[in-house]
Structures are given as structure tokens and as C-alpha cells.
Design brief:
The chain is α/β, with parallel strands linked by helices and 385 residues long. 45% of the residues lie in helices and 21% in strands. The strands form three sheets. A seven-stranded mixed sheet has the order 7-6-8-9-10-13-14, covered by helices on one side. β8, α9 and β9 form a beta-alpha-beta unit. α2 (38-61) packs parallel to α12 (299-321) and α3 packs parallel to α4 (102-113). The radius of gyration is 23 Å and the shape is elongated.
Length: 385
């Protein structure tokens, strides 16, 4: 009798333990956490972590343990694709925040497509990221075909340039951006001295020599801060103070460090990630970011946070639509594409059929004496709604 009563007690305890167990739901982040672009990639991961932290309690009430799993793509397409395959193999991962680089997003999203793992990018701007029509690829930022003309308009309208030397870093991001800028400049009758691709990282002397001969009114460089910063440093040391304009790849606090404060002048860039000062709702976020990571939040930290909130709200919507049970990846993919997401730092997010944000904003920043200042903001919509 005692043995039977003990068995019943043990069984009851086991049953209670099983009932209270939490089912794990994982959200992955995919961004460069090592290498030359790790400053931006770490901001994305950290922003995503703050969003996940905010929603943990809501998921716990429904019986789920929400966790973020970061993956390092090293800003490399092959590394990112390999990480995407690992993500696809982990059935607890329902969606991805990332990537930073368009050249990584394109093959990674393709690798995740058959598994219906949704991606929400806080940074990708290349047109082909969404022009491929993938059901799992979304972004909360403006495209190159919006950012390029905005850069060209600034070069002609604000800098009054009549001749521009265009450079790109030979990536999907840099080439795509430079192509859009060149097209917009030529449409305005501006002379484009060159559109030159370079993978150079340390010695730009030959390019600088050609720029000296061309004597442009402005230089546009479609690339990332770790490469463009070295170029600007050497350009200024060569005595050339021509304005340098770029895209959101220059949006890093490391840029003036690489250039050197004395040389970090007359630099402008369009960015899809608003500076924290331009986001009225970001004050609490910035405080939490500093407290959690002992670092200052930057634009891509804020947009990593927003992209993660879209992902997490999408998962939550799928859970509720599935009667509070664990949803499938396909259900999450559909909930993200079709949802309307609020409470974000950058405003309401909803996507068109291609995965582009229906209403985004571009910002033009000026770097003077190593400090970033907002010049203007430009509301934009994708070419295809």
C-alpha cells in the first residue's frame, strides 16, 4: 500500500513537472560578429537581444522559453550560407534577424527558403534581395533604388557637384548602390569620371592618383566603413579634401576612428538606419542598451531591435493563430509577411508582396570633426508596392 501511494506521488510529481516544462522557441541573428565589420554586426545582435528580452515574459505565460541564438557570418557569403544551413537544421529556430550585408543575405535566404525560415533584415539594401520574390525574405529598410537617387540628389543639390568619381567595393551592396548613384547622376547631366570597383583594403595610392588627375567635385564610394575609412584617411593625407559621399555602410562609430579625427571632415552618407537622436522613441532603448552592453547604441542597433520585434511579434501572432500551440515555420513565415507591426522605434512596419517595407525613411548624415550630425531625412517607398 505504501509502495503504491509512493508511486502515485512520484507519477503526480512527474506529471506536474511535464506540465510546467517550457517549450523552447529560438530566434537566430545572422551578422558579422568578428572581422572588420563586427561593429555593425554586433549592434544588430545586441539590438535583437534586447527585443527578445522584452518578450520573454509574454512567451513564458504561453508555455514557451524564447531565446536568441547568434550566428557569425563574418560578412562572408560562404560563411553566412553555411550558418544558414545550420539554422535550417535546428528545428527550434523559427525565424532569423539579419543580415547586415546584401551579399550574404542573397545566398543565405535562398538556403533557408525550402525550410520556410523567415528572415527580417535591418540593413540589406540591394534591390535583388527582394526582387527575387522569395517568400521568406523581408527587410525594414529602404532599397538601393531609393538610397542611390537620394545620394545623387544630395551630391547635386547640396554639394553642387558637376563631376563625380564613383567607387564601389565589388560586393552586391557596393556595386548595386554605386550603379544606382551613377544612373541618377547621369540623368541629371552630371559627368561621372569613373565607376571603379576595388577590393583594396590598405593601399589606395593608385586610385588616389587617378582621382587627382580627374579632379572631381565629389567622390562617391559604395562600400563599408572599414575599407572606405582607410581610403578617406589616405585621401586626406594626400592633400585632397574633396567631399566623400557613401551609403549606410559608412554608418559606424568606427569610421572617424579609422579616418582619424583630424581627417574626419567633409564626409556624408545616406543611411537606412536612423541615428538614435532622430528616433523620438529611442531614449529608453538607448539607456537599456548602454546598461546591458556597456556601449552606446547606434543606428543598426536600433534597427536590429526593430527587425527582431517584427520577428518576435510575427512568431507571437502565429502562436495565437495556432490556438497558443507551437506554430510551424511556414505559419511564422506567413505571419511576418502579412502582419502589421507596431511599437517599433522606426514606426509601423508592414511589407508588400516582395517583402519590402511599404514606407521607409532615409537619413543623410554629415561627419564633421569626427562627429555625426543629421542633415536631413527623406521618406521613401519601394518602386513596387
Amino acid at each position: 500500500m505504501k509502495k503504491s501511494a509512493l508511486s502515485l506521488t512520484v507519477l503526480a510529481a512527474l506529471a506536474l513537472g511535464t506540465a510546467s516544462a517550457q517549450t523552447t522557441i529560438k530566434i537566430a541573428s545572422l551578422s558579422p560578429l568578428s572581422g572588420g565589420q563586427s561593429d555593425l554586426g554586433t549592434q544588430i545582435r545586441n539590438g535583437a537581444q534586447l527585443a527578445v528580452n522584452e518578450y520573454k515574459a509574454q512567451f513564458k505565460k504561453l508555455g514557451f522559453d524564447l531565446v536568441l541564438v547568434p550566428y557569425d557570418d563574418q560578412a562572408d557569403p560562404a560563411t553566412g550560407t553555411a550558418a544558414a544551413r545550420k539554422i535550417a537544421a535546428d528545428r527550434q529556430i523559427l525565424a532569423v534577424v539579419g543580415t547586415l550585408n546584401s551579399g550574404v543575405a542573397i545566398p543565405s535566404s535562398a538556403a533557408l527558403l525550402s525550410s520556410h525560415v523567415a528572415m527580417v533584415s535591418p540593413a540589406n539594401t540591394a534591390n535583388q534581395v527582394t526582387d527575387r520574390g522569395l517568400s521568406n525574405m523581408n527587410r525594414i529598410v529602404a532599397r538601393d533604388d531609393a538610397q542611390g537617387p537620394a545620394g545623387a540628389n544630395f551630391i547635386t543639390g547640396n554639394l553642387k557637384a558637376k563631376k563625380v568619381y564613383v567607387l564601389n567595393d565589388k560586393t552586391a551592396y557596393g556595386e548595386g548602390l554605386a550603379k544606382e548613384v551613377e544612373k541618377a547622376l547621369k540623368a541629371k547631366g552630371v559627368a561621372v569620371a569613373a565607376n571603379e570597383g576595388t577590393e583594396e583594403k590598405s593601399d589606395f595610392s593608385s586610385i588616389i592618383a587617378k582621382i587627382k588627375l580627374a579632379n572631381p567635385d565629389a567622390i562617391y564610394f559604395g562600400g563599408i566603413y572599414n575599407q572606405v575609412g582607410v581610403f578617406i584617411k589616405q585621401l586626406r593625407e594626400a592633400g585632397i579634401n574633396t567631399p566623400v559621399v557613401g551609403g549606410d555602410g559608412l554608418d559606424s562609430g568606427e569610421l572617424p576612428v579609422i579616418v582619424g579625427e583630424a581627417n574626419a571632415n567633409n564626409i556624408y552618407f545616406t543611411t537606412v538606419a536612423a541615428p538614435i537622436s532622430a528616433l523620438p522613441a529611442a531614449k529608453v532603448f538607448a539607456t537599456n542598451y548602454k546598461k546591458t552592453f556597456n556601449d552606446d547604441a547606434q543606428g543598426f542597433g536600433a534597427f536590429g531591435y526593430d527587425a527582431a520585434k517584427v520577428v518576435v511579434q510575427g512568431v507571437l501572432n502565429a502562436v495565437r493563430a495556432n490556438k497558443n500551440k507551437l506554430p510551424s515555420r511556414a505559419q511564422v513565415e506567413s505571419a511576418i509577411r502579412k502582419g502589421s507591426f507596431t511599437g517599433l522605434l522606426s514606426g509601423i512596419v508592414s511589407f508588400n508582396s516582395a517583402g519590402d517595407r511599404k514606407a521607409a525613411t532615409l537619413y543623410v548624415m554629415n561627419v564633421t570633426a569626427g562627429k555625426f550630425k543629421l542633415s536631413t531625412s527623406i521618406p521613401v517607398k519601394p518602386a513596387k508596392q
